Amino acid sequence: MTQNDFLKKIEDILTANTTLVNELSDILEISQDSAYRRIRGTTQLTIDEVTKLCRNFKISFDVFDDIDINSVTFSYLKLENKNDSFDTYLKVMLKDLNLIKNAKQQKITYACEDIPIFYNYKYPLLGAFKIFYWMEAILNNNDSEGKKFTETFIPQELMEGGRQIFEAYLDIPSVEIWTDTTYYSVIKQIEFFWESGRFESNEVVIKILAELAQLIKDIQLQAEIGRKLQGSTAQSGQKASYELYFSEIEIGNNCVLVDLGNTKSVYLGHMSFSTISTLNKTYCNLSEQWLSNMIRKATPVSKVSEKIRYQFFRKAYTNIETLKQRVLNS
Asked: Quick one: which H or E segment has residue 189?
C-alpha cells in the first residue's frame, strides 16, 4: 500500500465537515502546508506519524501488507469483570458506530448468529437483562455475582450508553442476514436465568419477554417498509435503509462488514459478545465475497409479501409465547 492509499483510507472515515489536511495538521501537530505535502506525497510520513494516525483512527499496520494472505492482524478490547470495563466497551462501540455513521459513504452488512446487539438497547428491560447476562455469565462480574436481576439493577449510565448505540445504528444503511435460530439465543438466556432463580419475580420475566416480542415485531415492520425505525410504527421516525434476508445456511458466528467506499473493515464476534476487528484488505474482500454468496442463496424478507414475512417470524413469536406460558403457569 502506498502513502496515498493509506491517506485515502483515513479520508474515507472522516466526517463530511472534516478535511484530511486539518486532521493531519491536528493529529501530527504540523502546519497545513506540511500536511498538504504529505497528501501530495512530496513528503513521506515518518514511522512515528504513521503510528499516531493508526492509533487515532484504529487502523492496524497490516493494511500495508496485501501480500501475505495467510496472516491477518486483529484489534480487540480487553474486558475485565467489573462495571467500568463494560462501560468502556459500550463507549468504544459507540465511537466506532459514530465513525461509520459520519463517514461520507457507509454501509453495514451483518451476518447474524444472534439478534444484532444494537437493538437490545431500544428496550429498557431487555437491554438491562442482556447487560446483566453478559456481565454475570460471560465476564463473571463481581458486582452481579449471585444477585437477582431487578428492573433497576443495571446503572442508568450503562443504559444511556446503550441507547446512544441504538440511535447511531439507526442512521447507518444496513443489510442483515438472519437464520431461523438468530432470535433463539436470547430466549434460551432468559429461560436459563429464570430456571436458575436469578430473576426478582416472574413478573419481570414476563415484561422482558413482552419487550422481546416487540423487538421482533419492530424488525418485521422494518423489513416491510425497508427502513430502520426509531419507534414501533411506520410513522415513528424512519431512518436509514434496511434489508433483511433469511438464510437456511447456519452462520456460526456474528460477522459485520463495514463498507466506507475505498475502505472496508470486518468485525467478528468472539467470547460470546466481544469483537475483534481488522482492516486487512484481502480478508475484508474475502469476507465481502462470503457475505454476497450468503445473500445470493438467501430468501429476501424485506419488501416481499406479508405472508413470507409472517412465516419467517412465526417461530420467534411461538417460542416466546411458549416460555411466557411456562412462566405464568409456574
From this structure: helix 184-195
Q: Give the residue from 233, 202, 239, 205 showing the smallest Cα distance to 217.
A: 233
As given in the structure block, the three cell numbers for residue 304 are 416481499
For 94, the 3-state DSSP assignment is: helix
CA distances for 139 relative to 78, 113, 133, 149, 249, angstroms: 11, 20, 9, 16, 30
pLDDT at 294: 95
Q: What is the pLDDT of residue 204?
A: 96
- If we measure between CA atoms, which residue out of 284, 300, 247 comes closest to residue 112? 247
Grid cell 472522516 is found at 14
The pLDDT of residue 4 is 81
Type and span of the H or E element at 256:
strand 255-259
Angle at CA 209, nearest 5°, toward 122 and 227?
Answer: 40
Q: Which residues pair with 174 in a beta bridge?
A: 108, 242
Positions of the chain with pLDDT under 70: 1, 16, 60-69, 80-83, 141-146, 272
What was the pLDDT predicted at 228?
A: 95
Neighbours of 237 (CB within 10 A): 12
Rounded to a whole number of angstroms, the distance between the first and last alpha carbons of the chain is 62
Ramachandran area for residue 41 (φ above 0: left; ψ -120 to 50: alpha; else beta): left
Q: What are phi and psi of 182, to 5 degrees?
A: -60, -40
Residue showing cell 442512521? 171
Distance between alpha carbon 311 and the CA centroid of its chain, in Å?
26
- pTM for the full model? 0.82
Q: Are 330 and 197 in contact (CB under 8 A)?
A: no
Written as nine digits, the cell of 277 is 476487528
What does the pLDDT read at residue 258? 96
Residue burial 133-170, b: 16+ Cβ < 10 Å; e: rest: bbbbbebebeebeeeebeeebbeeebbebbebbbbbbb
**Amino acid, res. 66:** D
